[in-house]
Every structure is written in structure tokens, then in C-alpha cells.
Amino acid sequence: MRPDNAAPEWARKLLERTLDVVAVPEDSAILLEGSLAEGFGNAGSDVDFLVVVPGDGDMPTLPAVLFVDGRRVEVRTRSVGQLRDQLRRLTADLDEDLLNRCQRFLRALEIRSGAVDLDELRALVPYPRFAASLAGWWTVRATHALRYAVALRALGADAEATGWARDGLLQAIKGWAAGRGETYLETKWLPHQLDRMADDPLIAACRALSDLDVWSPPDRTPPAEDAPGGESSVWERVWELAAALGVDDITHDSDQVLFARVPGVTTWPLGERVHVLRDDREVFVLSARAARAWRSVVFGRSVRAVLAAADADIRVELAAFVRLGLVGLRWRGAGSIEPALAMCKPLRPYTPVPGGLTPALGLTGAALDDEIATLCPLPAQRFIACGMNVVWSNIVLENAREDLAGAVADGQGAVADLAAHRLIAMTVRILLSTYGIHPLPADVAPLETLRRVLPSDTLRRADLLAALESAQRVRFSRILRDGVEPEPVLAVLDDFAGLVRWVAGGGSAGGFPSSFDSREQWSRTLAISYEWLRLAAYLDAELPLDEARDLLTTGGRQPHLRSGGTA
């Protein structure tokens, strides 16, 4: 506890000079709050004045910041009604800002009382009750942080586990101290708070543990696992000390940590790649190794059990899934693990740098640019729209190629030109869609469109433009009329389509089946389409045509076929 409740004389004098600069109501009360009111602080600490104004007015949250006599001074205003509302809210859900504002008021030193009954306000939440509430709040946070440390250590993330364990102990100490009247919320003056309770043997234990090598940076060699003060010994002391500080629902046992499903996280295979949607807005594509780890996760099963059942070491991948928020964690019999560092909001899944490969997607989904999980640079709705355009443009391209071959074979030059135009348009659509362009530009002036839209670093950009320019010069009506052999001309169009599919595949064959050659090829086409359609339906995306919806209802199979039919 601080030594006395009297505002220091220097604060009164500084207030007088401050009031020469700021105007406050004459009947307001003025208090000194914060670290200096607690008896902490130093020459560089802010001087915080709280002005309590009579009535229920809505005073601004932002303080006035001044520099008076070489000190940084903050003047914050609250009406009596605002303070009363804050204190009454302490019976509901607690958060850091509310606790901090109330603690500062309850511990503030009165400089001027004005026409405000400060005792009546403080009586709304007697200090012992506030201290008990704060102690419980810190202890709950410490429990979550330490449980998270257990999970991370089991997943091989030792540096992070150490950091969370250390912070969890800090929060446990803050809770223990609050229960003994030391309620200053911020952690920066914890050493001074402990100095005021130095006669308690737990203080010495806390300080002794903080000096051990387990808290050292990762580049320092820790003690041997089984040596006195070694890693296992230190971690056991962490749990023992936590229990002594009041965090008793914790044990260093990864069998207590269960994997949990996260709302809004769903799994979607596209070809050979596994995609995971987060919050139905972000698309992650998993590497082959990460996909195997993903399939190993069984919700409701413990971390220990999942690791034991895996046929490889998947700790790195599982830890990544936890950090990204693709899987959640629960403590057996006690609900979700929701850790928060001291003075911070609860931990949220982080968002990595989006993948940088181009094209951004292809027939098998997003481009893979990470050893574990790549965040597609396209939001989910644009990702699925572009993917659907790639699939259906490929189908129409195949149909146009079939029509073109038939028209050429029958000498129908004008029909062949229309089919060639459609083939070129669909090929350009494929290319633009793989680069994440949606909605698509009109199917006119394709050469100028590609010159304008394609990035300068597009794979084989010059070859693409040259191939398109050659394809646009093809006129089957003239070729067939003049008796020119059509096969070399057909090859010009095929070369352009093949080059686009190669680029769209990231430098490999596009792999799209010849949809209209055989039942087998058509079945492969339907299978590719069905995978994309399932994701489109889940996201309530616009489907390209009514037949697509029929494919969904049949589970990706053709309608009307007899069982075992071969047609």
C-alpha cells in the first residue's frame, strides 16, 4: 500500500500553474491519479490530473496534454454521471480499460473537492471489493496464458511457450498482489509493488525464478534437462509457483489441451491441394506436408493423443494452425483457451503476408508460396469468382475447339471464324482470371486488354502477346476458300491456348481435360467443376449457369445414367 493519502505539495503548486492554461468548472473536484498518486513514478513520469465535473454531462475521453514547468501534464475530465456509470459497470464483464479507469479514481489523491461528493462515488465500489475483483480478473488471465504455454511447449514452440509462461506468472503475481491491496494495473511498476510486500516469502521465490536460464534468449545454452535448475526442473517450479499464487487449475500435461473447431473455418479440397477458409473471407492453401498434418487433427482429442497417432513429426504444422486460428484449443473440462498478454487484448489469429506468386490461382486452387500455409492474396469471394471463371472458360474453350474442328472439316469458314473468336476470348478469360481479375473486362480488343492489364513481370509476357497477335490474324473463311492446309493454322490457336494454360499453371501443364473427347474426359471435367461449385455454393457465390446448380444436386455426377453405363 502507498504510505499516505495526502496529495503532495508539489502537485498542488503544479495544478495552480496548469489552471492558468486550461479552464475547468469552478465547482469541479480535482484529483491526482496514476503512478505518482500511488507513490511510484520518477522525474520522467506524466502528471495526471482528473477533473470530476458535477452532473451527468458527456465529457470528452481525450485528455488535454500540456507541458508545465518541464513536466508533461495530462488533464482528463469526467462527469459524476460518467464515473458512476463506470463504477457500476464493474459488476458486468470486466476489461482492462474499465478496470484501469476505476482503479485510478479509487486510488486518486484529492487536491480540490469542489461540489462533488467523492466519498459517495467511492462507496459504490468499496476498495476491498474492487481489489478482489481485480485479483480474480488477473488470475483468470494468468490461467489462460499458462495453459497456452503448456500447448505451445507440447507443439515444440519452446521460445513462445517460455514467453507465455513468463507472462502468465507475471499476471499471476499481479493477481496475488491485487488480493493484498496492490491494485495499480499497469505492470511497469510491479517491482515497486513487490518492494512494498518484500517480507512475503513468495516474493523471493518469484524473483529467484525470474533469474534462471530458462528465461534466457534462445541463443544461450540452457541447463541440462535433468540438472538442478535444468529445464524440466524450472518448468515444474513454474507450475508450483503459479499454484502458490492462486492459479491452481493448471498442470503441465498436454493431455489436458484439446483441439477445438473454430467457427468460420472450413476445409475445401481443389484438385490435389487442400484449402482452408478462415472467417469465410480468407483462403489458405496448405502444402502437401501441412495437408497431412491437417488431416491428423481430430477435434476433441488432446494434443498428446494427436501427436502420438501421427506417422510423422507434425508439431511445427500444428503450431502454425493454432497461430493462424485455423484450429482452436480447449482445456479439458474448462472451455476455450483464450490467452492475453499483460496489458493487452486477448490474442487473435495473426494474418501473414499474402502469397506473392503469380498467377494467384489455377485449376487446383491458390498458388502455394509457403512451407506450411499460404494466404491467397485474393479475398474468398474474388477467389471463388476467378476460380469459377477459370473452370468454365476452360470448358467453353474446349467446346469452341470442338466446334472449330468440325467447321474446318466441313469447310464452314464463317462458322470456324466465330468458333476461333470464342476460343481466343475464353483463353484470354482464363489468363486474366488466374491473375485475380474480377469482374472481367469485355471480350473486345483482347490484345490491348492484355497489354494494359497484365503485370510487367508476367511469365513469358512477350510470348503471350505475340501468340495472341498471331491468333487474331487467323481467318478460316479465307484459308478454306483459298485451299490452304488448315492444320498449321489450327496449331497457331492451339499454341496460344497451350501457352496460356502453361502460364496459368505457374509454368507447368494446365492439366485441363479434353472435355468433349470421351466420357472419361468429361467425367474429369465434372469432377474439377464440382469441387469449385461446392465452395461457390458455400460462399453463396453467383454460379455461371443453371446446369452448374444441377451438378451440385447430383453430387458431381451426370444425371440419367444407368448404373454401370458406359456411354
Descriptive notes:
This protein is α+β, with helices and mostly antiparallel strands. It is 47% helix and 11% strand. The chain contains 21 helices and 14 strands. The strands form four sheets. A five-stranded mixed β-sheet has the order 3-4-2-1-5. α6 runs antiparallel to α7 (158-178), α15 (413-434) runs parallel beside α19 (487-504) and α17 (461-472) runs antiparallel to α19. The N and C termini lie far apart (88 Å). The relative contact order is 0.06.
Summary tags:
21 helices, 11% strand, alpha+beta, 47% helix, single chain
| Count of helical regions | 21
Radius of gyration over C-alpha positions, nearest whole angstrom: 34 Å
**Portion in strands:** 5-15%
Derived structural class: alpha+beta
Shape: elongated
Average per-residue pLDDT, rounded, comes to 88
Please list the strands of the largest sheet in the order they lie side by side.
Answer: 3-4-2-1-5
Helix content: 40-55%
Total strand segments: 14
Please mark out the parts with pLDDT under 50 across 5 or more consecutive residues, or reply none.
217-230
**How far apart, in Å, are the first and last alpha carbons?**
88 Å
Largest sheet: 5 strands, mixed
